Amino acid sequence: MADTILIVVEQREGKLNRVSFETITAGQAIAAATGWTLEAAVVGAASVAPEIASKKLAKVYAIESRKLAPYTPDAFAAALKQFLASHPAKLVLMPHTYQVRDFVPKLATSMGRTVISDCIGFKHESGKLVFTRQMFQGKLAADVSFTSEAPWFSTFQNGAFRGDKAEDGASAAPVETVNVEIADGVIRNKPQEVFKEAKQAVDLTQAEVIVAVGRGIKEQKNIEIAKQLADALGGDLAASRPICDSGWLPMDRQIGSSGQTVAPKLYLALGISGAIQHIVGMKGSRAIIAVNKDSEAPIFEIADYAVVGNLFDIVPPLIEEVKKAKG
Amino acid sequence: MKILVCMKQVPQKDAPLKLNESGTWIREDVSYEVNEPDAYALEEALRQREKHKGEVVVITSGPARAQQVLREALAKGADRAIHLEDDKFVGFDAFNTAKAFATAIKDEQFDLIFTGLQSDDYGYAQTGVILAELLGWPHATIIMQIEKNDSGIRVKRELEAGYFQFVDMPTPAVLTIQSGINKLRYATLIGIKQAKNKPLRKVPLAEVQAAIGENLQKIEKLYIPQKTKKTERIEGAPAEIAKKLVDKMKNELRVL
Questions:
Q1: How does pLDDT run across B8-58, given as a tens digit for each residue?
Q2: What's the gap in Å between the CA of A174 and the closest CA on chain B?
């Protein structure tokens, strides 16, 4: 029997997280390279199974127990451990979301296994499967292999694969419900309702031009020159996480995995090194201009135009030139 | 409340990194600093102790240089420190690191263990959750607020896309702390002085060796990532760069 790849799709409050399609694309690519069978599972929300079953998959499992809602790491880890005991898989793939980060290390540890997390790709060379992941905030990449027995767990970074490339199946994959027993006392956390903080005052997702500042801005008072540039361009001011953590700009100006995801016509990054958590929030920008004094800053990997230099030298004349151009 | 804070020394954010000869790790001759989310984890522990009394203990693993993060933590107010000292700890995967920590603290009784939500070097985002599972404790990740209550604690988890969730949980528990949960303090001169006399227990590899197995994952190769995007360098004097950028904005990007 061929080995199996199991994709665990993500649902939140009973709705499919679209990032799951990226994991399906990744799984289809690994299945094509290895010849392994590709299956998927959804934990605690059978209602999303049909949406998944339309994709090219051998089978879809709906893992069910009334104790799976609301989400808790204890219940999810217990359910998947039980499922994997009766449905062995060689490789288990998930998106690298906050929810997965919350339970998958627990699941793997409970089975004496490991997770290669936050991968951006894979290689299958002379029969060996390795996963590529970023290290040192994206400055370096590593090819990582499993040295343990199956199941192997691996998670993929948002945007590493394209969800719209997930292939449809010729016909819908069969859906099978698998009931799991979660004993009393397993679940220790009591989650309350999910909520959003007071409405975000600033919606950066519609901005055409964004001027974003990072640590390179050095002091709160220096944010003024970035603001002047944003004003001159008719754009919005944004920031990387450390700037908002320091309280220099409000949290609703934050771009990245814990802030807003934007795709403006122009993203002007001032003194932003380009940590992965920031890049996932802005790499869809149509054009990126980066100004940074560190020529090795990861932001330059994704920039269209790179200026290696001190932003305090570059920005003042840039404001003047923009004003001139606008007349 | 007795709190353990797991801290890590990582290369400084803007330190230029060089690969070692075998291309499996970086050369060690770089500048180091404390992993940023761990600094927030320490700050949160100190604040909890100020509110509820108790003790803050800091732990790290790594070569002699890693002691610096413990010294800084003691100077900021931690009560004592544990250093799993050996060069080999650097190459441990998250599973082995967590096992080493669990072994080193087996005679202690903590109410809470904090870690940063992930490290700036490996970025696995796993050690805290693995440690919880090894200890048989509940955990919660990416925490932005911690309140003690009658039955244990109520924590605020950060979810994605601006969502949050409160979770009630019993203690002892492991929490992974998000950057920005609080405002960091600086060490005072008195604190730095006092730190010299605070207890720092060194744990040699031999003391935890029995719990350690082979790594379950292996870095086959570390390398400089291949560029996928064509980047145009804009060079010259600042005034010249400004002119060139405006020309791009006007004629190529059409945002002016």
A1: 999 998 788 999 988 889 998 899 999 999 999 999 999 999 999 999 999
A2: 31
Nearest to A141 among B223, B249, B254 (CB): B223
Give the domains, in start order, of chain A with CATH numbers. 4-179 (3.40.50.620), 204-326 (3.40.50.1220)
Other Cβ atoms closer than 10 A to B113: 29
Residue of B nearest to A191 (CA): B167
Please check whether residue B123 touches A, CB under 8 A: yes
**For residue B32, which residues of chain A lie inside 8 Å, CB to CB?**
none
Render pLDDT for B182-213 as a digit per residue (tens, 0 to 9): 999 999 999 999 999 999 999 999 999 999 99
Q: Which domains does chain B have, with CATH numbers?
A: 2-211 (3.40.50.620)
Question: Could you tell me the CA-to-CA distances from A5 to A27, A54, A56, A94, B70 in Å, in that order?
Answer: 7, 17, 13, 11, 43
For A37, phi then psi, to 5°, come to -80, 140
Q: What is this model's ipTM?
A: 0.91
Phi, psi dihedral angles at A178 (to 5 degrees): -120, 115
Check CB contact of B67 with chain A, cutoff 8 Å.
no
The two tokens of residue B175 are 């929490």
Query: Which tokens belong to A254?
Result: 């934050």
Q: Does B215 reach chain A within 8 Å, measured CB to CB? A: yes
Averaged confidence pLDDT in chain B = 95
| CB-CB under 8 Å, B159 with A194 | yes
